[in-house]
Design brief:
The chain is an all-alpha fold and 625 residues long. 72% of the residues lie in helices and 2% in strands. β1 and β2 form a beta hairpin. The longest helix is centred in the C-terminal third of the chain and has 47 residues. The N terminus is likely disordered.
């Protein structure tokens, strides 16, 4: 029994030893628990030194693997950061987010939270930097918009600090991130304006207007820039565009009031200068007034009058037509009626100017336009007739003169024109031996100017060829009564009626009858005597006739000639005084050195005469004077 118990004890002891199998690399090794615990303690001592802190950990396996530990730590920092963020402790939140990002740099939402915290601290540059990192990780449009806004806020902060160049860079970057955002572009324009880069500013405003044509503020901004550059007309046009979009725009109304006030002031200065005779200065002022308010028809009417007086007729006509166009809505406007009348007057004046320059065809074209607008104006037909006369178109000239005569039957100057033209036409017919037609034309000349002797003489010659001797005798008697001392009258009378004296013709019954008829004609035509001109200055509100302008220009030419003669006389007088002074000096010098009058020279007769030879035997002798 004892032996059996001794055998069972070792077996029991064997059962009490626990075996542990540890797999090391590829080969399993049986290690006891004591040895395993001892090896762990040695490893901990080797890693952490003699510290006994970690020895208290009963089961290290429960801490988990590395990924779980890292994730739990990141979550811990994130939760702590969110807590600080919600409490407004931005710096602590940034610290927590930074720790979390150090453990996991790919968490985009932490960059976004951190950027928001930097934004709350007004650290715009750091906020923008973190938003760029977010955009690289997840390029979403919302992140891009947020980044553009942060850059814009940074630019606005720099703008308020008057760091305009850096602000411009920020605004430009914001525009690049969001090109469709108008606010960012407007702030760039404001920044350029603050830097006095107005050319670039105007260029950007033009681009904005092209993109957004319904924004009245943009037009006002561009109007301000044009005002700065001195382009008043462009400024006015932009104001009108703004008011068309928004009639109640306050700034547009104030700017328009300022422009119209400046225009009226310039117009008053122009009127003052024009009254003083400074037409060119007045033209400059009215040009300025029109640039400030190009919709006032009165300004164009006034400038047209100035240009007409300065003989710039094309520009004057354009201004009058512009005034008519501006008054198109109001047909009963007084300015419209005056402008229409001034257009016709300018056509007439331009035609007269062309007439004096020898451009008769151009003058006729201008007068055609004037006649088309005013068919009852006497002077237009007279002037066009004069142009036709210069061009040799006598029939057209006579037609215009006859038309003018219907409008003013008793005008003496016109009747003289018709008489002269009728006489010329009659002379042409007379040379062609068309005596009947010639007699008709000469009769017309006599009717329109019964004072002219040569018309009677020409008709008398024509009537002789027509064998109307009684009529020819009447014409000769009329010529004798008008100018009995004219040599041509007596010569022609001797050729036509040889053997008859002027006295016999005048004392005959035909003479008495002719005298009575002639007296009636002359009495009826007495008002046709030439009248003296009331003045040499041309009026601007009437149709100028070519003859009137010539008479108006003659006194000026005579005045210039008179001034020239006075200058010549003064020059001649100065020369005479100089010569007289020189002669006085010479005479004075001669008196001081008075020479003797005794002559010391020998005088010899230059032509000695021989005594006459006596020849008594000659039968004649020369007479001596």
């Amino acid at each position: 029994m004892e032996e059996e118990e001794e055998v069972e004890e070792p077996k029991a002891k064997v059962k009490e030893v626990k075996m542990s199998t540890v797999v090391l690399t590829l080969f399993p090794t049986a290690v006891t628990e004591e040895k395993l615990q001892e090896s762990k303690e040695k490893a901990i001592t080797r890693i952490f030194g003699p510290a006994k802190t970690l020895l208290k950990v009963k089961n290290p396996q429960r801490a988990g693997d590395f990924e779980s530990i890292l994730k739990s730590k990141i979550d811990e920092h994130c939760q702590e950061g969110h807590l600080y963020f919600s409490q407004g402790e931005w710096e602590k939140a940034i610290t927590c987010y930074t720790k979390a990002l150090n453990l996991d740099p790919n968490k985009a939402e932490l960059y976004e939270k951190k950027a928001e915290a930097f934004l709350q601290l007004c650290d715009f540059q750091s906020a923008a930097m973190h938003l760029r990192k977010v955009y690289r990780v997840s390029p979403k449009e919302e992140i891009r918009e947020r980044l553009a806004f942060v850059v814009f806020i940074q630019g606005q902060s720099l703008y308020e600090q008057k760091v305009y160049l850096d602000a411009l860079h920020s605004f430009t970057h914001a525009c690049e991130l969001q090109p469709q955002n108008t606010l960012y572009r407007i702030r760039s324009i404001a920044c350029l304006a603050a830097m006095n880069r107005f050319n670039d500013c105007l260029q950007m405003v033009n681009e904005e207007v092209e993109l957004e044509k319904n924004n009245a503020d943009l037009f006002i901004l561009r109007a301000r820039l044009f005002e700065y550059f001195g382009k008043a007309s462009c400024c006015f046009c932009n104001i009108q565009e703004a008011l068309a979009l928004d009639p109640g725009h306050v700034e547009a109304q104030l700017l328009l009031k300022k422009m119209t006030k400046e225009a009226e002031r310039s117009k008053d200065l122009a009127v003052s200068l024009a009254i003083k005779g400074n037409l060119k200065g007045a033209l400059l002022k009215i040009n300025r007034a029109i640039s400030y308010n190009p919709l006032d028809e009165k300004y164009f009417l006034f400038r047209g009058t100035l240009l007409r007086r300065l003989k710039d007729f094309s520009a004057a006509i354009d201004d009058y037509l512009k005034a008519v166009e501006l008054c198109r809505a109001d047909e009963a406007s007084e300015v419209r009626r005056e402008a229409e009348k001034q257009v016709l007057l300018s056509y007439n004046d331009f035609a007269v100017h062309c007439y004096h320059k020898g451009c008769y065809e151009e003058a006729v074209q201008l007068l055609n336009k004037a006649v088309k607008g005013e068919k009852n104006e006497f002077g237009l037909y007279v002037n066009r007739g004069d142009c036709f006369l210069k061009m040799g178109q006598l029939n057209f000239a006579m037609a215009d003169y006859q038309q003018a005569l219907e409008l003013r039957p008793l005008d003496p100057k016109l009747r003289w024109r018709i008489a002269w033209l009728s006489n010329e036409t009659g002379m042409q017919d007379f040379r062609k031996k068309q005596y009947l037609q010639a007699e008709t034309h000469f009769s017309s000349a006599v009717e329109n100017d019964p004072w002219e002797v040569k018309y009677y003489l020409n008709r008398a010659k024509t009537r002789v060829f027509l064998q109307e001797f009684l009529g020819a005798k009447e014409d000769m008697i009329s010529a004798l009564l008008l100018n009995p001392s004219k040599e041509e009258v007596r010569t022609l009378m001797g050729n036509l009626f040889p053997g008859e004296s002027p006295e016999s013709l005048l004392s005959s019954k035909v003479g008495d009858l002719t005298k009575t008829i002639l007296d009636r004609k002359l009495n009826a035509f007495l008002e046709g005597r030439p009248l003296k001109s009331a003045g040499s200055e041309l009026r601007t509100n009437v149709y100028v006739q070519i003859e009137d302008q010539q008479k108006a220009e003659e006194p000026a030419a005579k005045e210039e000639e008179k001034v020239s003669e006075e200058k010549k006389l003064q020059k001649r007088l100065a020369e005479c005084q100089q010569h007289s002074h020189q002669a006085d000096e010479e005479l004075k010098e001669a008196r001081q050195h008075k020479p003797t009058l005794e002559s010391k020279t020998v005088w010899i007769d230059p032509c000695p005469r021989l005594p006459p030879k006596e020849c008594p035997k000659e039968p004649f002798s020369w007479r001596k004077n």
